[in-house]
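Troubleshooting log. The previous structure file for this entry was overwritten by mistake, so regenerating from the original sequence record. Sequence copied from the archived sheet and checked twice against the printout by T.R.
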Amino acid sequence: MAPKQKARSWSDLKQSGNECFRTGQYGEAIGIYSLAIKELEKNSKNNQEDLGILYSNRAASYLKDGNCQECVKDCNMSLELYPFNVKSLLRRAAAFEALERYRQAYIDYKTALQIDCNIAAAHDGTNRMTKALTEADGFSWREKLPPIPTVPLSVREKLATKTTTPHAAPPPSNTPLQPTQAPLHNSTRQTNKPAPSDKDLRKAQVLKEEGNALVKKGEHKKAVEKYSQSIKLNPNEITTYTNRALCYLSVKQYRDCVRDCDEALTMDSSNIKALYRRAQAHNGLKDIGSCVSDINTLLKVEPNNAAAMKLMQEVQRKK
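Regenerated output below.
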């Protein structure tokens, strides 16, 4: 008779779930996190914060798997157990945004910014929601918002020490993924750039859209000027950097492209466009090692990215 296997602890299950998430096996991660939650809930000495983190991790897996409704449910549970957890707020905001529940997404992004005003993803999300809500409800859209929760100062101080790179690295127990900068899901990191005023945000958005229109016409040098003006007003929007990087690629200013991608990746270390465009720029500079490194990082985030795999094949033929 085979010996009875010892039941796995919730912490072991959590680590297995982390590994599945790290390799893009989101469905498997969901199942393993579910087992970990059951094990921890059975433990009379369970810690609410640990349980809240498990729900938040499973929420990240649901979000990556495209199940936004379940992501919201898990974030709700996580935030009951671990109030004002930045990762859960950002994950729920992303899910709300995908579900076109823009008011709720705006509230979560703004709440996260109370905890740390330098979270680039929260600034970007707030900008997107402002635009969407203005289009939907006009300039009086703020009147229709539910109240934004006030994060107590004691909570802000406590959580700020845990989110020196928000939604990111240490402490490793807070996230399924544990890289040196930011996780490959909902990845953001702290930026020291000041938050722009609402007026600057609106003007920056207009300039960015003008740049987008010029790109569609193939006028990349003119688009660079528009994006540069937009960045001066709002240096926290990742997509403006990646858009300008595309323009630099088009005019073969590869080093400028690399710089813009570097900037974007300091704010979102798993940004697909930044990784791919930087890989292209490194290829243009004949820096094959850096090109391959960027492609490998991208494929860890999105294993089936056809463009990245094609570029890898092209680069390998050059070796």
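The longest helix spans residues 198-216. Archived copy saved in two places this time.
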